[in-house]
Write a structure and sequence with these properties.
single chain, mainly alpha, Endonuclease III, domain 1, 9 helices
Length: 192
């Protein structure tokens, strides 16, 4: 008797191999590391108006040009460094987005200092426990939430840019504050 290969059923959105790898290994898993959270914050801002696949394809370029997303280093980027980055095709060369990464690094460091860590601050918006949603279709997933709206307002008040409610909700999904894996997805359960 031939053994049947068990097929993983996942969310509907990952289409490319890169999307599938990201979905299966990162998206929706709780992140507590500040440097990783800074990476997602910058990448989600860069994604505004674009597809996440576009950003995933350039992720290594961002890591190289933004010093592996070390907020201390990014906060010290000079205008000359920014100009050099803007000429590099490995990232989205949008001046406002690149400049906001630098100003966001400064604001990020201020939040770390005030709250002990960015992680502690961020996870406070969900009472330090992931929100596990029970969505059956992609249409049920909202563009934002009350928590994302609050996070957006707080970040803007702290001097961040490219942190609207939709970007904040995407950040919360990516970093596991919100589990929006569809209920049929193998990643919806804790054993993913």
């Amino acid at each position: 008797m031939a053994l049947r290969k068990k097929i993983k059923v996942r969310c509907d959105w990952p289409k490319t191999d890169l999307d599938i790898l990201y979905h299966d290994t990162e998206w929706g898993r709780p992140v507590y590391d500040d440097q990783k959270l800074f990476e997602f914050l910058i990448l989600e801002g860069a994604q505004a108006g674009l597809s996440w696949s576009t950003i995933l394809k350039r992720r290594e370029g961002y890591r190289a040009l933004f010093d592996r997303f070390d907020p201390q280093k990014v906060a010290r980027f000079t205008p000359a460094r920014i100009e050099k980055i803007l000429k590099d095709p490995r990232i989205i060369r949008n001046r406002l987005k690149v400049m906001s990464a630098v100003s966001n690094a400064k604001a990020f460091l201020a939040i770390q200092k005030k709250h002990g860590s960015f992680s502690n601050y961020l996870w406070g918006f969900v009472n330090h426990k992931p929100i596990i949603n029970q969505r059956k279709t992609m249409k049920e997933i909202p563009a934002t939430s009350p928590q994302a709206d609050q996070l957006s307002k707080s970040l803007k008040k702290s001097g961040f840019n490219f942190v609207g409610p939709t970007i904040c909700y995407a950040l919360m999904q990516a970093t596991g504050l919100v589990n929006d894996h569809l209920v049929h997805c193998f990643c919806h359960t804790e054993d993913c």
